[in-house]
Amino acid sequence: MKNYQDSDYALNKYSDGIVYRFADAAVTVSLADYLAENPDKSLNDFNELKKISDSIYYDQDYSECAQTRRNLPIEGLSETLLGNALSPEEIFFAAIDEQEKAEYRNERVKKAKLALKKLTKVQCRRFLLQTVTGLTTREIAEMESVKHQSVVECLACAKKKIKKFCPND
Which residue of 54, 106, 107, 156 is surrounded by the most CB atoms within 10 Å? Predict the structure, then answer.
């Protein structure tokens, strides 16, 4: 990566004046210098010129970085990315696998939402209490002040409905 202090863009942007870099030196034109040589100009003219030079330096800096990125050889890329753990082919197939897993997860979430919508409010609440919070059927029954068997039957019906909409889950 390029040294930030060597960047013409950084030198110009963070300087109070306009920086011109030559092969052997950099020259900074301050506001006072600019106004002394151009008495008919104002602070706005100087700021406009500085903005233009910032833009030019930025474009130059960006194109240099972009060219460097384009010249990055593919050999050794896997070592750079994963510390020599995988080949480029393995990285490619791992990325595809991750994408497929994400698609599969998204599909399962959609099915789960549909299944939960088919449950009654009581079934949904009890099912979530058991699966998400990990409460037992006895704890749910005690919390709701109902019979244990009522919770067991309710959850059995809920699970049956869920299996109907999510047969593989």
Answer: 54
What are the tens digits of pLDDT across the range 125-146? 999 899 888 899 999 999 999 9
Looking at the chain, the domain(s) classified CATH 1.10.10.10 span 84-165
Q: Which run of H or of E encompasses 35? A: helix 31-37
| Rounded Cα distance, 23 and 26, in Å | 8
Q: Model pTM?
A: 0.41
Q: Which two tokens stand for residue 57?
A: 């330096």
Residue 78 or 116, more confident: 116
Q: Which CATH class is domain 84-165?
A: mainly alpha
How confident is the model at residue 32, as a pLDDT? 86
Using alpha carbons, list the distances in angstroms from residue 65 to 29, 80, 150. Answer: 27, 18, 68
Q: Which residues contact 128 (CB under 8 A, 6 or more apart)?
A: none
C-alpha closest to that of 141 among 121, 118, 122, 115: 122
